[in-house]
Inverse folding.
């Protein structure tokens, strides 16, 4: 059909479009409409009001990529500050100004590994987010590279034997099951065969966890949504990308750098552009152009709001509430831990009832108990992944416990009756 | 034009030397404070964050997280309170030029007005606070919106199938190249090359390499079209795809498009449409009808997602039937009910031939909300009007510049009716006035307009690429023409003026070479 | 202090005369465009509004609204599209200085940071889209919030009863005077005079007149307190009320307050507390304990309602038992249930002795939401801290200015420990440096800070009234002291500098006399 | 008690305060939660997104009254533009920059009349908003003036006999029952006894109605909420105040005026300040200081958004939908018109069932049918005031008709059963 299709309509007034979009929104169950323990890659954290107030300013919201630095110092300095914060958080010296989001950041890191050592294989932990693993596979096909999965044992990665055809070892911290990995050991194993170590990490737990840099990881990437960005049903958010000095000139994307103007005044520009598509074209280290500047800005504002001590306090609060939830939930008959590794904000349970039915029951009761692991892990068919952010209070956790207990019990009764 | 003496802010300050100096001293105070980074404003003990109550039993850290996993010291994030954070970023914002402040004719970027309604609807909790893994039955509004947007984009592209997953144009391109690969491989063919015109945007060749293909450039003929002979010569059975922008990056409609499609399809290759310039043709013609197999959209250009200083965006793709089996996973599907209830929407993961995911979750939904609101506001007639006025504005401005005598120094690269944008060459200006396109651009900064895109496309010497968009008024276009004429006039008098511009910006010309030579890309803490 | 050479934006522009001139020409282009009004941007046929669908049967206007009632021609409102409206007001906004940009020590106005959370919660549809005549049973959240706010304000004031109705401080004052009248009349007394100190804010005497009383001024003694002898002399049986600010507008705590209360109550008059300076004493002492009968609060000062460039605000009042019967209608009441359910809240109109309404509906609810959020965020300990730091900051700045050698030209009006603000006298500066307080203030504009309040209170010659507030950092206070010292230094060198300031603002000194002589207060259309 | 009272609490984190305020909001039924026909002084109009986007800019949101014009040109020019728009709408040459809100604006106008002719009485139409009448009475007590009410006959004001002790005649257009008054006739009657005419008017209907100026009204005031301001449970909004040239120097509040700077550049200042409290103190024409600048800014932005033709189109849309509703509702047995005068956006019905009970029934059905006139008008005990803004569609009106019909019928059944 032509654009005069019903798909396009004839045009409507502002109030009518507002009402239409509000009606659509009303048919979604948001984290304000239920008590949600969903995580699995994106988390319901509180976004402070000042973040929205600042990023809604048209001076940040509406400009293009800062091609004219003299009239873009606001955005460029914010990028520089963002890079500093990410580099501080990851313990790695260089950070770019953002990539699209988490899983594609893992792919981008893989491409840097390819450019670096031109080897044939990636070894990726099964503890890496399923979306990241699938994204890497999609891209690796284009690079003619193989992707091998390293299994999880007792909740953490077992790299097994590595050889010198391994381009990079890719892990996640904490991993998809919420378990804290021994990053140093994994990075050492990779280094021994001359492979790069790529770690996808969750930025907030880094307030407590050893930084990837300390663990001698080469590239740290991750999903930035938890840093002051809305859930937005999955995007837009941003991906962060930090690496060792050695990889600086293979980094993808924009990088802001400090310089001086003709009068010696400090200023900022997009730098090292010879890596980029608009200069190097087919020889570029990446094809990325439009990235996620506004979301990354939200990220650095959020990190400034948290501050040096706040990020630790927030991580500790989650750690303690999560520990409470872990104990509380595993005291339910028929609910056991899927692994016993240390966790920060998220943990995995095994239900001895069909997860799907149990979840349905909880939803009916206004509680979204978490993510069913069975979707991505046949081996954890009735596994449940539960996330505890600072927005979930003890009362919420107790409510979850009661609801989950009732749901599991009810399901067992059904089974007995059926028998 | 207003008399210039209605202006002179500093010049008219009473002429005594002392006062001039101290007037500047005052700026000194201001600049010294404005220049600080958020890290430089940090003071131990300050904070904005207050932790919520610890409402669970406390426990020693070591029990919950063994010391070997914990970091030695807290990350040195800034220590600042809310008032300083707000002031800091508020002041930074004032050092940005933005679309809501002035004209922004940045070629190839479609800097059209971003309606404020879009921010309002995207922020509704039902959209903004929806978890990406929410059960589809509990996200019906979101899935229906995505479905409707897919239909709308399909009908604009004239291609039946859409994936919203790619995060930006270049991500859409990558999807397109990987789809092409999957398509050929599925047919047992391995092809090695992808063709792009020498006018192509940098992301095209970069994408080709990332997709594992070798790039082959096709030339441009005297009239600005793809050189058909060169294309014929290079289009062989090793060619997997031709990536094209139409209108081209020269702002010209590719008149030979049907012949091009014939040649490309003749060798069994796919034809890829870089949709960055879609703003020129909506409702007038459709890439699908031109023979394109794969199209990407830049929702942050044509469909008004604000650019955010470098993103976010979204780069959905539309494809033909033969490409459909390979589309990324998951796809939004509609399940119509026979008993007349409203249809249900779901996510379909079961796509055996799919290239798989390109990213997490379902794409940049927040961007979809804005673009959908835009499409619903305009409807089919409005979208057609958008393209008509975009083209009209560009041709008006081109004519106006000619009338202002600019053509002598900045002739159109190709003397044809342009589409939504046009490319001028600054070569004569450089020769005769001894200022470069860069100088012209920098001088524009003093006049309060954003310069056009410069030095792209590469095939035009000293290129200046101007895209006014449909949301600008005649007064704004007239004013821009006057400004260009004025800058050329002053350059005739004294080229130094432009060469040393800008003068009135927060910082003046910055040393980019030094920045790259000794990169300082983080603050030393 | 940073070296000044890190600054010089225009001065360093390459020195050739031509370039200077054209640099300014560029500004000319900008200014010419920036200066237009929204009416001057109007062009026939342009529009932002699109009417919703006419979904009911159409009918000729004459049938629905006879011609004799209809206006001849449409009001000549601007004809502009959304992009121009947004740019117009965006540019206008850049011609305002604001609290989120810099220091704003405007005495008596309590320009403290406005937390962004407050805008978010006020905008929640449950608050922002609640109709004022919604049935109380369906507005329980709003009524409970108002009730809680009343309790909080009562406990801060140390007085049991609160009405939230008045719209601003001066409206609260008017309520107070009318309450006083009702109180006396109810007791069969007719009194004719109201006392105010000569330091009183202008709204006090203006209110007295509007309330139908005659004003009698009480003097200030050598130490800046109310002159008790003068008060005794003037406090007779015709006096209905004494209106007082404590700390006074001199920023000094009224040490004789108990004696004052004794005198005023001795003649049966009421004691009114102008709460504009409440920020100095929260949690430290309470007007009720000092003997005040009626207190007004400026929620837009002490309780962070953003000032909005001149409102909105809110001026709730707290009163003692004897005044309570006369409070405005309606009052929010709580009805506790005996069976343990949550209490219900209602509006009580049945108040026979009430002075009646002062305005429509229930007051500025949107302001209540913000102030309530503020109080809940800080709690009792936080509010006390607010006042402690507000007083500390003022005394620190006063000392810092002394240390910077400013006292010689700008001595404190009264040499005492100040409260949350202090008043300096520019008399010596005027005498010895030949610049007035006005010149000092105007020169501050070039340094990027908002000047303090000037020429108030009237009892201080060339007064400069400085209120830093608790949300400013030490660096900001230090910087302000340096700026004042710098301006005095340059004035010693050349007083013309300050006399001709400002130099760097969108406009320079404006002719206020001419504006008043031949008022142009609307655009000729 | 002391401020450490439970009333103040101990202080909480941002997210906790947000949750508390959200919980309170959830216990209010907003105009998005029901189909509301409530009006009676404030109306549920659509506020375009650009209004909020602009007034939330800190440069407009956070400054004080513009005492330093050189750094306040944005706010001052906006005031000047606002004054122009109000003066254009009311057909009167001078407007101030805002007063508090509608009813207190009527009081402020009364004070100007007092200052002008020092007479003893106000004659105020019973068609003026009850809150305005009560506010005037509250203030008049302080001025030692009487307030006499002129009755309504067939829905419009009957002034009866006026004499030379009448300081001002005060009417409302359209009046509280929605009826369009014959303003010219009323103003003429007032002028004959040398009294001022004060008209409280609803700004949006002025897109169609003869302006107060054309009708020779001396002072036009009104509630500005409908011009781009939220309902906010009654405030903050703004009051507008426009008058004849003769009254310029007795106007209350701020007035922005055009002038030039030392270089001849156009600029704006607060002018005619010798009327004001900070200069004239006890001799001031009003005590107002902080007014409603931000709300008035929303007003002028909204009027620019509507534009010259939009305000007419909007008024016509309301006129037509209101006519439809009037016919539709009066076709219900037991529902009749309370008056037959022309109306624009609001009209009054008489129910032959107890309004309270009928309304309760409609509310239970998710429809808020309007305002019960009995609260303020014993003479219209079962009267119902129904407002139709552009946000109420034909579907909403039909829904109201069905609900109201059912409610009235149900009530009659009850009565019969009881009998
Ligand atoms: C012609 C063309 N193609 C592709 C792109 C890349 O789009 P994106 O920035 O969304 O990745 C651009 C953006 O500038 C472009 O102008
Ligand atoms: C001491 C004092 N009293 C009263 C007022 C009047 O308060 P409002 O502006 O809220 O009417 C002010 C405001 O400046 C003031 O400073």
């Amino acid at each position: 059909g032509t654009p005069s299709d019903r798909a396009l309509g004839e045009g409507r007034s502002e109030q009518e479009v507002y009402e239409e979009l509000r009606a659509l929104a009303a048919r979604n169950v948001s984290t304000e409409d239920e008590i949600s323990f969903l995580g699995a890659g994106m988390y319901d954290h509180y976004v402070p009001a000042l973040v929205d107030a600042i990023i809604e300013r048209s001076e940040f919201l509406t400009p293009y990529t800062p091609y004219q630095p003299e009239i873009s110092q606001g955005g460029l300095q914010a990028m520089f500050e963002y890079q500093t914060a990410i580099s501080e958080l990851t313990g790695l010296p260089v950070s770019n100004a953002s990539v699209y989001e988490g899983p594609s950041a893992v792919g981008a890191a893989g491409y840097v590994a390819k450019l670096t050592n031109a080897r044939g294989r990636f070894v990726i932990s099964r503890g890496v987010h399923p979306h990241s693993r699938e994204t890497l596979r999609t891209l690796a096909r284009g690079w003619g590279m193989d992707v091998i999965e390293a299994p999880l044992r007792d909740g953490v990665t077992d790299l097994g034997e590595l050889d010198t055809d391994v381009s990079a070892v890719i892990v996640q911290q904490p991993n998809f099951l919420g378990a804290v990995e021994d990053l140093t050991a994994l990075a050492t194993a990779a280094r021994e065969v001359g492979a790069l170590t790529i770690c996808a990490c969750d930025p907030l737990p880094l307030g407590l966890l050893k930084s990837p840099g300390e663990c001698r990881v080469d590239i740290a990437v991750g999903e930035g949504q938890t840093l002051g960005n809305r859930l937005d049903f999955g995007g837009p958010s941003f991906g962060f990308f930090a690496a060792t000095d050695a990889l600086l000139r293979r980094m993808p994307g924009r990088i802001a750098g400090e310089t001086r103007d003709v009068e010696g005044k400090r200023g900022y520009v997009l730098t090292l552009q010879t890596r980029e598509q608009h200069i190097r074209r087919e020889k570029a280290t990446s094809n990325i152009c439009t990235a996620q500047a506004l979301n990354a800005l939200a990220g650095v504002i959020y990190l400034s709001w948290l501050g040096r001590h706040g990020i630790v306090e927030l991580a500790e609060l989650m750690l303690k509430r999560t520990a409470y939830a872990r104990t509380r939930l595993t005291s339910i008959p028929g609910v056991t831990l899927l692994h016993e590794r240390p966790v920060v904000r998220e943990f995995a349970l095994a239900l001895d009832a069909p997860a799907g039915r149990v979840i349905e029951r909880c939803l009916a009761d206004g509680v979204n108990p978490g993510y069913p692991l069975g979707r991505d892990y046949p081996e954890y068919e009735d596994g449940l992944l539960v996330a505890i952010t600072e927005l979930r209070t003890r009362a919420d956790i107790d409510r979850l416990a009661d609801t989950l207990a009732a749901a599991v019990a009810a399901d067992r009764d059904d089974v007995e009756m059926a028998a | 034009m207003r008399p210039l003496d209605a202006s002179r802010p500093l010049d008219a300050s009473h002429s005594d030397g002392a006062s001039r100096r101290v007037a500047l001293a005052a700026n000194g105070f201001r600049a010294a404070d404005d220049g600080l980074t958020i890290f430089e404003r940090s003071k131990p003990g300050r904070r904005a964050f207050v932790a919520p109550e610890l409402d669970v039993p406390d426990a020693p850290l070591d029990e919950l997280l063994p010391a070997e996993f914990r970091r030695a010291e807290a990350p040195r994030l800034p220590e600042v309170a809310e008032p300083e954070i707000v002031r800091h970023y508020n002041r930074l914002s004032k050092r940005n030029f933005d679309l809501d402040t002035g004209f922004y004719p940045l070629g190839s970027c479609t800097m059209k007005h971003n309606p404020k309604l879009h921010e309002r609807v995207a922020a509704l909790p039902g959209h903004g606070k929806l978890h990406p893994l929410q059960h589809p039955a509990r996200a019906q509004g979101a899935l229906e919106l995505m479905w409707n947007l897919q239909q709308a984009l399909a009908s604009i592209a004239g291609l039946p199938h859409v994936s919203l997953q790619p995060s930006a144009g270049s991500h859409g391109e990558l999807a397109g190249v990987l789809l092409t690969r999957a398509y050929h491989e599925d047919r047992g063919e391995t092809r090695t090359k992808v063709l792009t015109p020498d006018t192509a945007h940098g992301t095209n060749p970069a994408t080709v390499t990332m997709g594992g293909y070798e790039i082959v450039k096709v030339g441009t003929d005297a009239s600005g079209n793809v050189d058909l002979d060169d294309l014929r010569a290079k289009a062989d059975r090793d060619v997997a795809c031709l990536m094209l922008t139409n209108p081209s990056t020269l702002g010209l409609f590719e008149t030979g498009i049907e012949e091009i499609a014939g040649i490309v399809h003749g060798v069994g290759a796919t034809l890829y449409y870089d949709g960055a310039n879609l703003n020129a043709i909506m409702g007038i013609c459709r890439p699908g009808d031109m023979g394109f197999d794969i199209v990407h959209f830049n929702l942050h250009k044509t469909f008004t997602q604000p650019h955010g200083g470098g993103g976010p965006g979204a780069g959905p793709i539309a494809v033909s039937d033969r490409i459909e089996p390979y589309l990324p996973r998951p796809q939004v599907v509609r399940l119509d009910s026979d008993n007349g209830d409203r249809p249900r929407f779901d996510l379909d993961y079961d796509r055996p031939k799919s290239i798989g995911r390109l990213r997490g979750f379902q794409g940049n939904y927040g961007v979809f909300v804005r673009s959908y609101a835009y499409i619903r506001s305009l409807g089919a007639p409005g979208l057609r009007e958008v393209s008509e006025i975009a083209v009209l504005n560009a041709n008006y401005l081109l004519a106006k510049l000619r009338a202002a005598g600019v053509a002598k120094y900045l002739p159109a690269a190709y003397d044809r009716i342009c589409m939504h944008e046009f490319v001028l060459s600054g070569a004569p200006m450089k020769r005769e006035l001894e200022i470069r396109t860069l100088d012209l651009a920098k001088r524009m900064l003093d006049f309060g307009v954003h310069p056009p895109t410069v030095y792209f496309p590469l095939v035009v010497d000293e290129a200046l690429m101007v895209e006014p968009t449909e949301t600008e008024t005649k007064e704004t276009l007239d004013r821009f023409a006057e400004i260009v004429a004025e800058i050329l006039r002053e350059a005739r008098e004294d080229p130094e003026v432009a060469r040393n511009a800008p003068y009135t910006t927060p910082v003046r010309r910055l040393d980019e070479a030094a920045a790259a030579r000794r990169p300082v890309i983080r603050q030393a803490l």
